Amino acid sequence: MHRVHSPGLWRPHSTRAGFARLLPQLRATLSDLARKGRSVFLVVDEAHLLPHPIFDQLRFLLNDEMDSASLLTLVLLGQPDLAHKLRFAPFEALSQRIAVRYHLNPFDLQETAAYVQHHLLVAGRQEPLFSDSFLALVHNHTKGVARKINNLCRTALLLGATEKKTILDETDLKRVIRDLEGQIG
Fold first, then answer.
1. What is the model's pTM?
2. Residue 9 falls within a domain, yes or no?
3. How many domains does the chain have?
């Protein structure tokens, strides 16, 4: 994997003039990589938190197209606020350049359980670690939102490790929820 790092390019306090000076160099690098058959992906996580000027800079990067093939694939990841932000007039030009949009819906109970099990398998855990009642409460408490599932289960794993538990149940999860909500007891 080839990484292009340009300090200052994505800092909110960067001036447009500074970006304008870097843009030709960045385009030349992207063109060189394209000639070599390399694809460049720019992944921006938490994109809903980006300040307005950064969206303009991203649009400028996407403006440079060769034979209908962009030099750069931009992947924006963010909360639903991102979709709302891109609907406003100042971001219309960037929004028009988005070819694929995807919204991850909350998981149902079965999907939540499968999601947690998958993570455990990837981590090397073959035997059950969470009871069915634990998983049901995870789903109910998180409403199936992946990030909330991750946070809740991560904290439960810490409890299980410190108490040397072989399986965690609904009672353990209730303790974790109380702790996370600031009601230690």
1. 0.66
2. no
3. 2
Return d(Cα 109, Cα 143) in angstroms, integer.
9
* Residue 130 falls in which region: left (phi positive, over 0), alpha (psi -120 to 50) or beta: beta
Task: Please give the full DSSP string across 94-149, using - where no structure is assigned.
Answer: HHHT-------PPP-HHHHHHHHHHHHHHTT--S--B-HHHHHHHHHHHTT-HHHH
Pairwise CA distance, residues 170 & 36, whole Å: 55
Question: Residue 49: what residue type?
Answer: L
Q: What is the pLDDT of residues 136-145, one digit of tens each?
A: 999 999 999 9
Residue whose structure tokens are 């998958």: 118
Residue with tokens 């080839």: 2
Distance, CA of 102 to CA of 100 (rounded, Å) = 7
